[in-house]
Amino acid sequence: MTECNGAYPSGVFAPEGTSSHASIDCTDHRSIRDPGPVLNFDILAYIMSFLTTAELLSFMQTCRDLRFVGVRWLLSLKTPTLEVKAEDKMRSFCIFMLSGTPSRFTFLKRLSMELADDLSADTVSLICQVISHSSSLTELELKTYFDDVFDTHPKLALALASLTTVKILCIATFEHGQRAAEVVSRIPSALECLSLYSSEKLRDANQVLQNSPETLQSLLLNIADFSSLTVQCCQLRVLHLLNPDIDVIYDAPTLVCSFPHIQQLGFGNSRLEDIQAHQHDPIEASRSRNQESFRKRCWNRLHYASGHVTRLYIAGLTCRVEHLECSLVSEDVDRLVAVLRDAQPLCLSLFVLVHERPFHQIDGFLQDVPHLTQLELYFSFGSNTVTSARDISDTMCRLLASSKIESLSLIFMPFIVQELDRESLTACMLLELDHRSLTQSIAQCIPTLSLVIMMVSTTSDRICSVWNVYQSPEGQRCICVAN
Predict the structure, then answer these.
(1) pTM of this structure
(2) 75-100 pLDDT, tens digit each
(3) Within a domain: 145
(4) Which InterPro entries has this protein been placed in (predicted)?
């Protein structure tokens, strides 16, 4: 996103003076018979459409006419989403939009605003006016940690209710998700993508779906009570469910009936280390109930599923997943085995935090995944993980020996790069990894392997190598650096 919190030179969003829009004559005094190339206003305006934001801002400072055209490109779809955070910049932006010609709002397509809890009433009033006048806005992101923002400023909810062209809407609140859902339910625009971030569960998912059942394609929200769901969204392809609890029960038959054509499904956040504090019994009980529910009715196949491995384990999906992406700590390997057995993915992306469990015990989880052809492994190590380059090589060979993968990506990195000392055990271990030796050892274990991508990252070093794997006329598995 293009941040408007200090990214724009002063005066860019100040009211403009009168502009003549005359052509700019950049020719030199050559002979009339051979004037040479003429760099006129139209050509300059066209060139501006290809510039980066920083280049565009510099270009705009050279001429009043170019500033006018540059504003059009800044507000149009050809630039990243305009992001406004600081209150002074927010006021300048609002005044700039409201003081210009009405056609200026036709250029504003994508907007992101972050509302602080100390915004003045005057600033909020300006924001409401801008939203109300944004007749061509297609994407809006509204972030606030100010829980009662819609109650304190009711005009903001009314302004949002006037939106008729928005296709992509994201509202992030801290706790009052139910109030935000009520605001969403009053927006008449037929949404294609809706994200509602909140720590509060929604009581009724129908509320946010009722206005866009035939157009909604992507949905992200906290777990609602899906048992009473009656709205059917046949166009929905992406569903991401956030929930901090482990005792969540998915009403699978209702979910599948309401969202019959789901292709991508996500559970929870991508990284949830605190989930390890939960007891074993509630997790097993939730998984058992959810699996029973999904056995009654489930999607035939998913193109993509993601989440922390414990979330996926609790969900108990029973359908095939072509691409599975999940994160886990090294102690979660047993749950990973169960998830892989259920999903049977063709492509697997794993983000593994090597914690208390020794690295050489992280193996065996690929034995029941015979159809896997593409594997991406991201290993993140603590600052003083007790392991060695030899342990990593031996473990990788044992892990991959029974697989039939064709493409392998291995990424080794510290968990927190900023806190890693170059002399720490982890940094020393990562720097000792021999790419060629490790790749050669792995190539001997997997007869189907054709490509290996390896990257090792430490505090200041990042080493990446790409290898082709082939079989020599003598039948030996060989490697060479890819072009």
Answers:
(1) 0.80
(2) 775 555 667 778 888 888 899 889 87
(3) no
(4) F-box-like_dom_sf
